[in-house]
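Colleagues,

Please find the record for the two-part complex below.
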Amino acid sequence: MIPMLPKATLALPEIILAVTAMALMMVGAFRKQDATRTCLWLGILGLVAAAWALVVVTGPRAVTFHGQFVSDYFSLFMKLLVLLGSALTLVMSQDYLEREKMARFEYPVLVVFATLGMLMMVSANDLIALYIGIELQSLSLYVVAAFKRDEVRSTEAGLKYFVLGALSSGMLLYGCSLIYGFTGTTNFDLLAKTFAGQGAAQPSIGMVVGIVFLLAGLAFKVSAVPFHMWTPDVYEGAPTPVTAFFAVAPKIAAIALFTRAMTGPFGPLLAQWQQIVVFVSLASMILGALAAISQTNIKRLMAYSSIGHVGYALVGLAAGTPSGVRGVMIYMATYLFMNVGAFACILAMKRDGKMVEDIQDLAGLARSQPKIAYALAIFLFSMVGLPPLAGFFGKLFVFLAAIEAGLYFLSIVGMLASVIGAFYYIRIIKVMFMDEPARPFDLPSAPVSAVMGLSAVVTLFFFAACWPIFAAAQAAAKALQIG
Amino acid sequence: MIIQALAFYVFAAVAVASGVMVVTSRNPVHSVLFLILAFFNAAGLFVLLGAEFLAMTLVIVYVGAVAVLFLFVVMMLDINFVALRQGFMRYLGIGAAIGLVLLAELLLVVGSWAFAPKARQMADSPIKAPDEITNAAALGRIIYTDHIYLFQASGLVLLVAMVGAIVLTLRDRAGVRRQRVGDQIARRREDVIEIRKLPANGVNSGGAGE
């Protein structure tokens, strides 16, 4: 037997990111002055190169590395979103890092490593690969959450995230071990075959317990209720560019992993997990809408808003159909732009060189800085789901899929939660447009304004370019179903 | 055969006895030393099972690194172990109850355990009998081929852990003297040694430096 090395071309984007991260460490270690800025832009370059490689190497569904790594149109779509989210947040953070004296070259290195972990999560086709991807991502995120190590809030955020993250990893692993114990395999394709072979027979109770633990671990990673407790504290405590990063790329990757795991290997067990996902989704939407009302800190508010958004995305997954998956993908695409844009606006909230985070600080922004105010208004209206902005299409497709699948109660409650949620988004708009102006903010830096403008344009004119995205999502959702 | 059985009982007995001593000895340093003894005996048991690679790893990783780390922690941190032990009697009841439940579960599992009839064919990476191939070769064959993806990814996880530890704790302090090997090598005799002629007066008029 001659050992054969597996084909590695499919993982070219991952390899590029790994090499980039390690090269950045060399650059940072040997270059003394302005290493951070160099590393930051080189990191962005690496992300762009990975995106290019991704588009080149991805074709129809193929597995490699002994069946542990899968590449299909679904992974292409989700990975592009992840890479875009990481790159945009890196662009936004340069100015903040330098101003807040946390400019160390490890920041881009860790962000690139986290992105690598996310790509591995999206492409995981095995329970072990899933776990290692999650750990690589989480470990990097714990560190960047505590990156402002001299500030108590930041270190507290990092520690909280670390302890709770370790707990959730434990639950996830316990679930994986039960699933392995009852099926004898960790490979997604083999799991799907095993369950499909069972037909209508009930899976054993241990198997169901395993799936529940796996779901609990994944729900923690997407911060869905009832595993959301860490989110507001971590979002508030972490430095703002890090919060922007947390809110976008890891969420997309975790939702992608959730979707792949549930519709792929556990697809035949829809009856077992559907009720759990329905509950998690309902609870997230309701809590996201109600708890955000009383918030005064805009970062905390965004945390509850992101919990709500995860709930809406899971509505599509709860349907368990290809059109549901398509809804999830479109939802995450719109979520990316409106959230990146909103965080660009939050990063622009600085007065006399100091960040401010209260909603009241936005008072009268429409008169003092109309550009930021209108951009933020676009993002918030999009989050409400007002047509024809991007967020409307996301909500439309997940609810359509849920109604097709007969989940009427879920759809009705979801729409009601969306109406309640509109209250706190519109309250911010009221503060910006109708209240007496507070002292104006400093001018935002060029990269932040650029990201803000780009996101605003995409959110505003999403309807014009949405058909190719819908078609891509449709094809990707179909590709996933083979499982 | 009899020697093997004898060796097994010796290793097992010493492992269990030192395990008990880890928990009961008063001095924490003694506890760590007994822990090391337990590791050595467990390694012996692995050798008897034909898992020599695991035995070596156990000695190198656990005895060489983890136990030494424990020793450092025990000796450097001022932990009051007597205070930690207080309340032993208070929790004895609930602890014993949990222990009994676990024991009962274990007995049930052992009683009803059976390998699936097709388990051997379904094994992910079938491995030959230990006398045909060594552990290290068998592991190497799958770690560096079938599982290279996971192996490399785990390496990256460890790298991130290292970067994280350095980022969060390393501080550049002013006034730290570092060894600069390059400067040391580049030093020449002429730069640092100065030869001065001292006036010969009195003490050793034999003529120093002439």
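Chain A touches chain B at residues 1, 3-6, 11, 18, 22, 25, 65-66, 68-69, 104, 106, 109-110, 113, 116, 120, 128-129, 132-133, 135-136, 139-140, 142-143, 146-147, 149, 158, 184-185, 187 (CB under 8 Å).

Comments are welcome before we finalize the supplementary table.
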